């Protein structure tokens, strides 16, 4: 063994490397800018920089200016983690504290590999390197293992094939954080009123949150029907999908393949780093909803 490479969350990787007397290379899957912010959080907290002059612990000033060397100044409202990190009532506070501790340990790695590019985050990379943290961008990694499987069991690609070039808005908010029901309803109404063709990825357990009248008008892929035990009977949806449907709902897609399709002209995204990288490399404009 000449080197140990682990995800940053596998903190004991560094201990194993030290025991073996070999370098530890940590792999950071998110943005280098985020790594830079987390590495500065202890200082920002100690300097009371997050609260600002107008604040109490329970009232965060969203316009407080945050200064991190090498990065543009930004407001607390631009990065919600900064509000949560000092809020004692934030239910996931332990996760933020865990990430800060992870970044502290990661700073001791011999090298950090990041799924990013110097063309995107050169300032953040240089900021970390100036503090002694060696970062090597190796992304976008999704380009290494592209899924060229011609199979299309849910008929998503075949539906896209029938659409005009750059005419479809692709919508996906990730697989982790749920979207409030009210916002799902508002988005459905917006899509109905604009007349834009769309491909909307909805977790199968959230399809019930979309107004039945909306699903009745648009196609639902076989994949979504299958995971819901037949959406047509439950939610008034349309069985299957055909080119005549202006919109299509499904519960899963191979995202790089969809973003690379000629019919997709825009991406409404929650700004997950993989989604951002995949959209940039495909040259698809983004409408961002962090």
From TrEMBL:
GO terms for molecular function: UDP-glycosyltransferase activity. The keyword Transferase applies. Keywords: Transferase. InterPro entries: UDP_glucos_trans. Pfam families: UDPGT. The keyword Transit peptide does not apply. Coiled coil: none annotated. Signal peptide: none annotated. It comes from the Eukaryota. Belongs to the UDP-glycosyltransferase family. This is UDP-glycosyltransferases domain-containing protein.
């Amino acid at each position: 063994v000449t080197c140990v490479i682990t995800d940053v969350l596998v903190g004991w990787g560094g201990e194993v490397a030290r025991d073996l007397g070999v370098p530890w290379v940590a792999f950071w899957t998110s943005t280098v800018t985020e790594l830079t912010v987390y590495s500065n959080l202890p200082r920002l907290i100690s300097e009371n920089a997050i609260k600002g002059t107008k604040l109490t612990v329970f009232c965060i000033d969203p316009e407080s200016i945050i200064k991190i060397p090498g990065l543009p100044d930004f407001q607390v409202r631009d990065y919600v983690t900064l509000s949560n990190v000092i809020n004692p009532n934030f239910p996931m506070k332990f996760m933020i504290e865990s990430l800060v501790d992870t970044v502290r340990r990661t700073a001791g790695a011999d090298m950090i590999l990041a799924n990013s590019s110097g063309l995107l985050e050169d300032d953040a990379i240089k900021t970390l390197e100036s503090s002694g943290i060696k970062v090597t961008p190796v992304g976008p990694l999704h380009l290494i293992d592209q899924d060229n499987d011609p199979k299309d069991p849910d008929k998503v690609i075949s539906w896209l094939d029938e659409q005009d070039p750059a005419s479809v808005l692709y919508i996906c908010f990730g697989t982790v954080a749920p979207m409030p029901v009210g916002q799902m309803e508002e988005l459905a109404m917006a899509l109905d009123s604009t007349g834009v063709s769309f491909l909307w990825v909805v977790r199968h357990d959230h399809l019930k949150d979309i107004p039945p009248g909306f699903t009745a008008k648009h196609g639902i892929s076989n994949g979504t029907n299958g995971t819901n035990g037949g959406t047509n009977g439950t939610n008034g949806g349309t069985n299957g999908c055909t080119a005549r449907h202006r919109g299509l709902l499904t519960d899963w897609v191979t995202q790089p393949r969809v973003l690379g399709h000629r019919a997709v002209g825009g991406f409404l995204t929650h700004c997950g780093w993989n989604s951002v990288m995949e959209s940039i490399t495909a040259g698809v404009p983004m409408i961002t909803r962090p």
